Amino acid sequence: MKREVLEVLEKDARATLKQISAMTGLSVKQVRKTIEEAEKDRAIVKYKTVVNWEKAGEERVQALIEVKMQPQKDVGFDAIAERIYRFPEAHSVYLVSGAYDLAVFVVARTEHEVASFVSEKLAALDLVQGTVTHFFLKPYKQDGVILEGEEKVRREPLTL
Asked: What element of type H or E holds 32?
């Protein structure tokens, strides 16, 4: 029950209680209660709008920064990850497998702002051993939403 409601909201945070009820077969009251509990438990953390900034007439630079670091005794990567995710430039921070330890997603107005963040804040942290920055050149799809062209509706017809 909870999973179905969350899946609907993840695809469309503007779905109404009535729409979610119709999609899941739950009553509006059950949907409302499920959402309230999910918000309280932080299963729902935020409602989000995906903006195509290029179409809105504003340029944004997006970058993925791979960070190699030395884990700390007794806390591993958590303490340094917290220092990094508290920077306003860091939109998303993930512990990852592979050659690097963290993946940091950054959004800024210019490449210079990203470079300043990396050199003045990120690389300056004691336990950071190295970084690699990848600039995103063109977005095609973000958060499950196709940004170019029109997305085709792929819903099954509703049968009663």
From this structure: helix 28-40
